[in-house]
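DATA SHEET
Item: assembly model
Revision: 1
Owner: S.N.
Input lines:
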Amino acid sequence: MSERATALAGQGNLPPATAHQFDDAVQQHEASGLGMWVFLLTEILFFGGLFTIYTVYRSLYPEAFGHASSTLDIELGTINTAVLIGSSLTMALAVHTAQVSRNGRLVALFLFATIALGSVFLGIKAIEYAQKFHEHHVPGPFFHYEGADPQQSELFFCLYFLMTGLHAIHMVIGVGILGVLGVMALRGRFGPDYYTPVELTGLYWHFVDIVWIFLFPLLYLVERHT
Amino acid sequence: METAERIDPPARADGGTNYLNVNYGVRSWLLTVDHKRIGLLYLGSITVMFALGGFFALLIRLELLTPAGDLVGPDTYNKLFTMHGIIMVFFFLIPSIPATLGNFLIPMMIGARDMAFPKLNLASWYIFIVGALFTLWAVFTGGVDTGWTFYTPYSTVGSHTKVIPVAVGVFINGFSSILTGLNFIVTIHRMRAPGLTWMRLPLFIWALYATSIIFILGTPVIAITLALVGVERAFHIGIFDPALGGDPVLFQHLFWFYSHPAVYIMILPSMGVVSELITCFSRKAPFGYTFIAISSLAIAFLGFLVWGHHMFVAGMSPYAGLIFSFLSFAVAIPSAVKVFNWTATLYKGAIAFKAPMIYALGFIGLFTIGGLTGLFLASLGLDVHVHDTYFVVAHFHYIMVGGALMGYLGGIHFWWPKITGRMYPESLARIAALIVFLGFNLTFFPQFILGYLGMPRRYHSYPDEFQVLNVMSTAGASILGIGYLLPFCYLLWSLRYGERASSNPWGATGLEWQTPSPPPTENFPVTPIVDVPPYHYSEEEAVLV
Amino acid sequence: MTRDDHAGARHDHVVPLPIYFGVFVTLLVLTGVTTAAAFVDLGRLNVFVALTIAVVKASLVLLYFMHLRYTARLTPLMVAIAFFWLAMMIMLTMADVVSRGWFTGALG
C-alpha cells in the first residue's frame, strides 16, 4: 500500500475494496455507471406511459387542456423550473468537486445546496397543490370546474396531479439519498479515487430535472396567449 | 483454459467443496449473494407458483368437462381463469428461465465469478417473493375476476374483487424483473472473460440479452398502467373513465405495449435453450450462428411494435389495425429464421435422443404450430372470427406451454448435472417427455377446433355440441399433469440417488462445462481465456458418455 | 468489451467548470424564452416551439451535466434507443387515436 493510502487508511478514508466479482476498480466503476443508466432508461418508459396518455388526451381535447392549463400559476412554475435547474448545477458541482479534490466539506456544501433547492421546489409545489385544492380542481368527488368542458378539464387535472406527483415522489427520494451522501461527504468518504455514489445520484437527480423540463411546458404553457 | 479438447475429469465420490456444501443453514441460503444459490431460490419459488397456477387450470378443465356450469358458478369461474393467468404469466413464465437458468448460467457461460450486482440479485428474489405474497393474499381472500388483462372500466369501476392487492403484487414483481434485466445487461456487457467477444457468446446469452432489453423497456409501462388502475379504483381519479372523456382502449394500448413484448420475454430464453440443446445433441455448430444471434435482437425490436393485434376488435381504428397486422407478420420472420436454422443444424448431425433433445424437438414442432396460428390471428379478417375464442387460447398455449415450458424443462434436464452434480434417470425422463408431448397435444389441439367452431373463451358453460372436444382436452390435461409430476419426482429423487455427474457429461462446448459439477462458489479457480469459436464440435465427435 | 480492455488507472473526464456555468445560464435563458414564447400566438407552432426548446434543454443536461458527451458509445446508444421506443409507443397509439374517425364504411 502506498504511504498516502496508509495515511488515509488511518482516517478510515480508503475507498471500498473492489467487490469480489470485479477484476479491478475500473471495471466496478464502469459497471456501476452502466447500471444506473439502465435504471434511468426504465424511468424514461415509466414516465413515458403518462406522457403517452397526455399526448392522446391533449390531441383529443385541445381547448379543455388549454384553459385548464391557464389556471396553473405560471410564475410559480417558471420559478420552480429555474430552481430545479439551479439544483442541477449544484449537483454537478458536487460531483466535480469530489472528482478533483478531497474537500469533503465543499462536496457536502454543494449536496446540501442541492437539497435546499430541491426543498424549495417541493415547497412551491405544495403551495400550488394547496391553491388547486382551494379552487376545487383536485380530481375526484369534490372536483368542481367553473369553465367549459368540466369533464375533459378534470382529465387535465388528473394528468397534472399524476405527473407532478410522480415527479415529486422521485424528488423526495432524491433528497433523502442526497442527505445520506451529504453526511458521508462530511466524513471524508469521497475523493478522486472514489466518488461513485455522488456521480450516480447526480445522474438520477439530473434525470428528474429532465422530466420537469418536459412537464413544465406541457402542463403550464398549453395556451397562454388568449 | 477452453481448448479444442474438452477435459472431463471423472466425478469425485464425495462431490468436493462446491457452492452447495460450502456452508449450510437457512441463513446461508436466505442471505446468499451467490448467483447459483439465488437461481435455486427462484427455482423453488416458481415451482410453487406453477403448482398453484396448475391447480387453477385443473379446476377450469374440470368445470369444462360438462356443458353446463355445474362445478362452479360464473363469478368463481371468472376468478379461476384470472388467477390461472396472472400466476402463470407473471409469477411463473416471465421469471422462469431468466431467473433460474439465467441467474445460474450467465456468469458461468461468460467466465465470470458472479453477476455484476450480486446483492441486487438477491434483492430481486425478495422483491419477487413480496409481490407473490401480495398476490397470494388476494387469491386466498377472495380472488380477482377481471381476467389477467385487467381491462377497464371493469377493473377500475365494475369489479368488486381484490384488484388493488393483485395490481400491487404485479407492480412489485415488475421491479424484480427490471432489476434482473439490469443485472444481466451490465454483466454481459462488462464481465465477459478475455477473448470472449460478442460473436463467440453462446446463443443462450444472446437470447437472454434480448430478453433483458424487453425487461428494461417494457416492464415500466405495465407498472405505470397498473398503478393508474389502482389510483382510479382507490381515488376515483379517472384516466380511463368514459364519463370524463377518458378512453378504455387507451388502457389496452398501454397494457399491451408491455404484455405483448412480455410473451417474447417468455419465449426468447426458451429459444436460447433450444439452440444449446440442438447443437449439443447433434454434435454440430449451429447453422447460421450470426443469424440466430441477431434474430433474438430482431424479435425484441419488432416485438415492441405489434401490440395492437390484441385490439383489432376493441374499437381501435382499422387503419392502425392495418399497421399492426403488417408488423405482426414481420415479427414472424426472425422466429422462422430460428426454426429454419435449427432444422438445418439437425441435418446430417449425430442425433442423440436424450431427454433434453426430446424437449427441444418437441419445442420446434409445437412452437411452429403456435407461431403459424399467430399469423391466422394477425390477419384482420380472420381475427374478427376467432378473437376471444378458444383458437386464441390454443395459440398461446402452444407457444407458452408447447414452446416456452418445454424449453424450460429441456434446460432444467440439460443443466441438472451441472446444477446438482447428479444425473437424472434417463429412460424415465424420456418417457416423461413423451407423456408431456402427447398430453399437451391432446389438451390443446382440440381447442383450435373449438375456437374455429366458435366456442368463446372465458365462458364457464358452452353449447352441448362442443362437449366431445372439451372432454378430450380435459383428458389431455390430466395426462399432461402426470407428465409434469414425473420430473418433479425423479429430479428430487436424483438429488440423493442419482448417478454422480462429471464436469461435462454431455461433451458439450461452453465454459460452464469446464468446471466441476456442482461448481465451486467462485465458478472458475482461474479466469478462463477464450480462443476458440463457439460450438466447436469436430466432425469425429464421439458418441456421448 | 471484455475485461482486458481496461488495464490501468481511472480515466474519467473532468468537465471544466466554465462549461457547467455556461450550460446553467443557457438553461435559464431558454426557460425564460419558452415562457415568453407561450404568450405569443403562433397557432399550431406553439407546442412545436415549446417542445423543441425542451428537447434542447434536456440535451444540454444529458450531454454536459450527465457527461453523456464524454461517455463510451454504448451509453448514448442505449439512451437513444429508450427514447426511440417511447416515441414508438406514442406514435403508434396516436396512429389509432387520430385515425379512428376516418372509417366510414357501411355503418358510418
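QC remark: The interface with chain B takes residues 19-23, 27, 30-31, 34-35, 38-39, 41-50, 52-53, 56-57, 60-61, 64, 139-141, 151-152, 154-155, 158-159, 161-162 of chain A (CB under 8 Å).
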